[in-house]
Q: What sequence folds into this?
């Protein structure tokens, strides 16, 4: 798979939350990459929507492999080697190729692995976002799993405190993949405000045993 094979829905500037979800890091880590000038300005976008006090940050899709490289190598490679690696990544995307290697003495960076991992994670986010919809007539317009009234963020919260088996028992119409989609979506699009306590159950849920939850009331 090459960069051009990505769905068009993910080949766009991505929010800091989306980038963090793809790289599996905290949003602060991504913001630090931007603040410290680690990522090249060519992959950064700043937009100010009407009513926003300040511009929002975005990272172009082409910058995702770079974020993943930094997240996985940390301070183990020099600034010069990182710049060289970024240039190779840009060439891989531009020429639509899957192989790329950077060598510096005894150190070899296989960017093919970084690229394939980045593409797979971006596709996972695209699928997760496609599996969630918002309708003003359903749950007040809050994000729900497509075709249901199940709140995506509540399903993700539930996945943190209960097993997949227990969730599927309460939601027989779901699958493990859809639970994973909810988890990915919730990390990419966190709710505003203070995070909910991990021990809290979704509204309408009740404990029926030590490990199982009846979700039919949702």
A:
């Amino acid at each position: 798979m090459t960069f051009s094979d990505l769905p068009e829905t993910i080949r766009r500037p991505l929010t800091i939350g989306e980038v963090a979800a793809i790289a599996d890091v905290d949003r602060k880590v991504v913001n630090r990459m931007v603040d410290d000038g680690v990522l090249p300005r060519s992959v950064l976008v700043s937009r100010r929507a009407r009513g926003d006090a300040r511009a929002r940050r975005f990272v172009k899709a082409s910058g995702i492999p770079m974020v993943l490289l930094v997240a996985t190598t940390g301070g183990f490679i020099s600034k010069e080697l990182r710049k060289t690696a970024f240039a190779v990544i840009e060439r891989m995307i531009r020429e639509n190729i899957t192989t790329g290697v950077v060598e510096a003495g005894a150190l070899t960076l296989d960017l093919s692995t970084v690229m394939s991992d980045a593409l797979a994670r971006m596709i996972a986010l695209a699928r997760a976002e496609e599996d969630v919809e918002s309708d003003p007539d359903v749950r007040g317009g809050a994000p729900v799993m497509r075709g249901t009234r199940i709140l995506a963020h509540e399903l993700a919260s539930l996945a943190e405190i209960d097993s997949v088996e227990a969730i599927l028992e309460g939601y027989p119409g779901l699958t493990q993949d859809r639970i994973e989609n909810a988890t990915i979506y919730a990390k990419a699009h966190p709710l505003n405000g203070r995070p909910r306590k991990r021990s809290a159950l979704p509204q309408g849920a009740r404990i029926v045993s030590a490990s199982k939850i009846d979700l039919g009331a949702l």
Remarks:
- The domain at 133-214 is CATH 1.10.10.10 (Arc Repressor Mutant, subunit A).
- The mean pLDDT is 89.
- Strands lie at 14-15, 44-47, 56-59, 101-104, 107-110, 132-133, 144-145, 206-207, 213-214.
